[in-house]
Amino acid sequence: MAQVMTEINFDSKQMPQIKAPRVPTTFEEIEVPRVVLDNLMLKQLAAYPKSDVLELTKLIGLNSHIVEEILAGLKRKSLIEVFQADGPSPMQKGLGHIRFGLSEAGSLEADEAFSKDAYLGPAPVSAEQYNKVVVSQDVRLNLISRDDITKALCDVSGSERLIDLLGPAVNSGRALLLYGEAGTGKTYVATRILDSLNSSVFVPYAVYTAGNIVKVLSHQHHKILDDGASSGSLIFEEQFDRRWALCHRPNIQVGGELTMDMLEVNHCDHSRVWMAPLQMMANNGVLIIDDLGRQAVSVDRLLNRWIVPMEHRFDQFVLPNGQQMSIPFILTLAFSTNLAPEDIGDPAFLRRLGYKIEFGPLTEADYLELWSMVCSDKGLDLPEDTLEHLLALHKQRGVSYYPCVPKDLAGISNDIVAFEQSENIVTPTVLSRAWEVYFTAGSKGGSTK
Question: What residue stretches are annotated with the AAA+ ATPase domain (predicted)?
Answer without folding.
Answer: 172-363
